Structures are given as C-alpha cells and as structure tokens.
Amino acid sequence: MKDQITHRKRRHLDVCLDPHSGVQGKGSQMEKIRLPHRPLPELDLQDVTTKTSFLGQTLQAPIMISCMTGGTEEGKRLNQLLTQCANDVGFAIGTGSIRVMLRHPERQEDFALKKWAPQVPVLANIGAAQLEEYSPAEILQATHSLDADALYVHLNAAQEMFQQNGDGNFSSWKTNLARMIEQAKDFPILVKEVGAGIPPKDALELLEMGVCMVDIAGCGGTDWVAVESSSQDSPNKDFYHWGYPTAELLWAYRLLMKTNSDWAQRLQGKIIASGGLLTALDMVKALGCGASMAAAALPFLQAAAQGEDSLYNFAHQLVAHSQTAMLLIGAKNPQAIATKNLHAESDLCSSAQNLIAEVLG
What we know:
Helix content is 46%, strand content 13%.
C-alpha cells in the first residue's frame, strides 16, 4: 500500500508539471469578469496596502499557496521551498493530504511545514473519504502534531470516481464532517473542493454546520479527473472539466451578497476563491466578488519546479500586480475591492442566477 500511495503521489506531481498532459485546467471564465478602471483613482501607490488578516494572523496579501503535494522526496523538497517562500513573502499555505502521514508516520516530516513558516498560517489537509477511515481524534492529533493552524477537509467525489481503488460511497461524508467539526471544538475546520466547485447553496449549508470557511475551488484549475484518468490506457474524457466554472460561482456569490443582507452576513469573510486563478488580476477579481482570500496551487508549483528565483519572482509579482490593480480601480485595501462596481458578461450573469435560484429553493 505504501508503494502504491507513493507511486500515485509521484505520478500526480509528474503529470501536473507536464505541460503536455492536458490536466492543467481551462475554462475558469475569469476573463468574463472585468475590473472597473478609474481614470482618477485619487490614491498614492504608497498608500495602497494588500495586507489582510487570516485565521488571526497578518498576511502581506490575501493569497494562499493551496494544498497540492506530499508523500514523496520531490514533493518534500518542493513543499519546503514553497513554505519558505510563503513565510518570506507573507502568504498562507496548505499541506498535501496528510493521509500519507496517517498511514506511514515516518513521512511526517514531509508535512511538518510550520517550522519553515512560523509567521504565516499553515493548514493541514485531509480528504473527506478519510473521515470514514480515521476517527476525528486521530486526524486532529495528526494535525496538531504538525503545529498546523487549521484543517482543510477536501471534497473530491469526482476525483474519487476516477481514482484507482477510489471510494464510490459518499453517503456518510456529511455525517462524518459534522462529527469532525463537533470534535474540533474551536479549532478551525475549513472545507474545499478540488476543482468542481462549491455553489452558494452548499456553502451556506456547510457554514451552518460550523465550517469556518469554504474554499469554492471551481473548475478551471488542475483537473483532477484528468489527472487520475491519465494513468488509464483509454481515459474517459467525458468528465474532464466537470463542475462549475470559478467565475460563475464567484459572480453568484457576489450577487447574493449584494442583494440580500442576511446572506451577506452569513457569507462575508467566509469565502476563499480558487480554481484557475493564474494571475494577480484573477485574484483581485475574486476579491471583488466577495472572497476574502484567493488561492492557487499549480502556478506556484510550476514556478517552484523552475527554481527558487522563479518562485520568489512569481510571488512578488502577484503582490505588486495586485497593488497596481487596486490602485487602478481605486481600492486602498483588500476590503475595498468588493465595494467596486465590477462587470460581467451576460451569459455569466445568467448562469450565476441559476445558482442563486438554488438558494431560493
């Protein structure tokens, strides 16, 4: 089993870094959202700050290097580099799935990222399927052993359906998640998708259960159905790009928060955006739609694979370009971005309205 898991994690890494693999998602539709240009911004660039608070700690920008890899020697090396960059630049960071560590405690060092990032939040990560395999106490003990600041539970039903020996029984996921939240008490439990998206109806339900924050992780980033299918002799491509485009989800959240004060109160500060956010402009658009944080994995991983200089240049560019975009739309801080009048193409608005209709019942 150890060799199988290690082999799969190594293959994941190889496939994701292969530009010809076809798993690097497309279709986030973020280009359908436009930021408003202010010819007279009435701001000094020196006064524009990207700083924000996340899980009680100050970040230099509302950006997270999202959960991606772990359990292999190359993954360990890249994780260390990514974590040191997150600490130096001021981003949050998530670990790969600690499932590997739970099964093979000798690999704990692969996930012990806090020693490399003492100044920023580090989030452990576990799949919802593993909530059936391990008790909340076991998972929380493993999380605390890493000195993690929070725990991500990832929902990956579509990936499981195409994963070798994947779990096709999702009937207890909600019950197990509720049990985890109850056992965790005040320790933050966040929930994320892995690329199919969490629409508002489901996010509101998760928050009602006691989830701290929801990472909507829409379609447009790494396509994990394609990653898992890539090992098959005849991969089934019918389910590639399954899910809701990230922009469609974000626009639905924006409309909800703009039109209903109750929903706004329940969602404000609770949404993390990810799924094909490749540039600072994508991330600023996400914040403009009401997300409090923007996350990405593959762009950072690709930069790290090119070396330390490439990674740090990319990270610093994200901050600088975010600051420039904020200046040009007249936003002095991240919280002000959501007050600006963003624009979206008509078909995106129509799709978002369908998601709102789900909330209305």
